[in-house]
C-alpha cells in the first residue's frame, strides 16, 4: 500500500514538473512507433567512439539508455490505446494522456517509470488514473502483469525460443 501511494505521489510530482516545462500538449502527439524511430535514428546518427562507449557503457543490447528495452516496448504496446504525450528513454519515463481502451467506457491515463536495466517487476512502476482519481489496486496489478508478460514474450522472441 505504501508503495502504491509513494509511486502515485512520485508520478504526480513528475507530471507536475513535466507539465511546467514541457511542450504544449494541445499539439499533435506522436505515435509510439514515431517516438521509437526517433530514438533509434538518434542513436544511429551519433558517431561511435571508444570513449563514448566506455563512459556510457552501451555494451548491453538489452538497454535503451539505462532502462530495459523489453519493459519499455511492452509498456508502449500494452498501453497503445493511450496517446503518448512525453517519453524519455534515458530516464525511463513515459507519460500518456487520457484514452479509452477498446471495448471500455472509462478513460485512463498513465505514467510509467522503467527504472532499471533488469527485466524485473521492481524495475517497473506504473501510475494509472481515471478522471475521478487513481484506479483500484487490482486494475493496476493487472496492467503491470500484462506489461511484464509482454516484456518476457519480447525477450523470448529475441532470444530465439
UniProtKB/TrEMBL annotation:
<keyword id="KW-0732">Signal</keyword>
<dbReference type="Pfam" id="PF12100">
    <property type="entry name" value="DUF3576"/>
</dbReference>
<feature type="signal peptide">
    <location>
        <begin position="1"/>
        <end position="26"/>
    </location>
</feature>
<dbReference type="InterPro" id="IPR021959">
    <property type="entry name" value="DUF3576"/>
</dbReference>
<protein>
    <recommendedName>
        <fullName>Lipoprotein</fullName>
    </recommendedName>
</protein>
Amino acid at each position: 500500500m505504501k508503495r502504491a501511494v509513494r509511486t502515485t505521489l512520485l508520478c504526480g510530482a513528475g507530471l507536475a514538473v513535466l507539465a511546467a516545462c514541457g511542450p504544449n500538449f494541445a499539439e499533435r502527439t506522436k505515435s509510439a512507433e514515431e517516438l521509437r524511430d526517433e530514438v533509434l535514428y538518434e542513436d544511429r546518427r551519433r558517431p561511435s567512439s571508444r570513449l563514448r562507449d566506455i563512459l556510457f557503457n552501451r555494451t548491453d543490447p538489452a538497454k535503451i539508455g539505462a532502462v530495459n528495452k523489453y519493459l519499455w516496448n511492452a509498456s508502449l504496446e500494452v498501453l497503445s490505446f493511450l496517446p503518448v504525450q512525453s517519453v524519455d528513454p534515458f530516464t525511463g519515463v513515459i507519460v500518456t494522456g487520457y484514452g479509452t481502451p477498446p471495448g471500455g467506457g472509462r478513460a485512463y491515463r498513465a505514467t510509467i517509470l522503467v527504472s532499471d536495466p533488469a527485466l524485473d517487476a521492481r524495475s517497473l512502476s506504473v501510475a494509472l488514473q481515471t478522471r475521478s482519481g487513481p484506479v483500484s489496486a487490482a486494475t493496476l496489478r493487472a496492467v503491470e502483469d500484462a506489461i511484464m508478460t509482454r516484456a518476457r514474450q519480447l525477450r523470448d522472441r529475441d532470444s530465439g525460443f
